[in-house]
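Supplementary material to the annual report.
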Amino acid sequence: MNPKQQRETFRINKYTGTTSGMCDNYLQANMIMLPKEYAFEFLLFCQRNPRSCPIVDVLEAGVTHPRIAEADIRTDLPKYRIYRNGKLDKEVSDIKGEWREDFVTFLIGCSFTFEKALREEGIGLLHQEQQRVVPMYKTNIPCEKAGRFEGNMVVSMRALKPEEIDKAVAITEKFETSHGGPVHIGNPAEIGISDINHPDYGESVSFDENERTPVFWACGVTPQNVGLNVKPAIMIAHAPGHMLITDQLEEK
Amino acid sequence: MNPKQQRETFRINKYTGTTSGMCDNYLQANMIMLPKEYAFEFLLFCQRNPRSCPIVDVLEAGVTHPRIAEADIRTDLPKYRIYRNGKLDKEVSDIKGEWREDFVTFLIGCSFTFEKALREEGIGLLHQEQQRVVPMYKTNIPCEKAGRFEGNMVVSMRALKPEEIDKAVAITEKFETSHGGPVHIGNPAEIGISDINHPDYGESVSFDENERTPVFWACGVTPQNVGLNVKPAIMIAHAPGHMLITDQLEEK
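Predicted assembly:
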């Protein structure tokens, strides 16, 4: 399926799972939607934290169609999260009932974009093999503050064989708008992750710690984590792992 | 003089002229100050137009000290322009009397930053030799719109000898946060400039058109030009050519 066909399956709720592995070569994006009063400070937060929050598109207040996808932002992601006053209220398959004309939408690069390039070099991705949502963790790596937005980075994890790591670093470094190279390799405790088997977002992936090393990339779920500190009356985001698939070919 | 000493001469109004040629190796910046209600759309405008508006720092509402210069933004530029309702009201040497807590300040890279690198390669700069403010022109090159902000690019011009041009392109392309390489070389009419001897900002520089070719770089005065279309009740900017000298060494 091409991105347009794939998004159609989300729109009619035929499919509501993770987008990892879908529409190879197309850029996937994290989504975060905030009332306009937060838009300046949030955009500045992204500008100051390009590793975790690389902006790939911004939809001005009231705009429902991105520039990089022939999509309706209210229906064309497989799953959404609605946060109220800093707490997760619910997960839904569309947000038509919540839409407001003062919502500004931010699209942020996603590491799913580089997964095909990894597979092409023979690097197996366990979360795809095990059909799980990629595991994501809160870390102790601080983001640079902007206005009310402050907090720590969220990372995604892929456990790789030692001989794959250099290659994975070299490949992903080229994907500048999709988080680039890893932010940490090895011991999870060094970045504040206490239990690799209990991710904060996504699902746990099984791997043999004697054979594979966890490798961590900055993650576009960071804004959800940071946004919760600000406690906006409403904040809508993609469900982690359930991205907007754009019509834009990946950029390396 | 180092940047701090040089800014002191501006603060006490000992000097109010152009900063071209001052504090070699230090990044110089365009300044634009807007009430917070415009901040999101203006930051988005910069994000969409990185060639003319490369952001080097943003001061959140009410903040008077940049992160990249130990300076007071209200006094430490040699000259300011105050625009009201889309018209130039006056030029002043400080803006202490106009300062408001809801002002957000944007600092944008400036082509003065790469002038030393040009001179070091033996490329003479006529505006410095003739002691003029570098000439700047409105063009017909459209910027990408963001919210209410739309309009055409402003460019600065340096007339070079034919044998200097390739070298100047190669040098300036490395200065990504200071506008990078030229946007146009040669015939001014092709980018909508009708009379090279009557710049829209700065001062005219004399050169022999048989011996030198005009070379144009994107200019951080673009936001002033574009901001005037929006007609904010108040907008404050540096006087063209009269920049903030930062404490940050140039980045190539």
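The interface with chain B takes residues 36, 39-41, 43-44, 47, 55, 58, 60, 104, 146-147 of chain A (CB under 8 Å).
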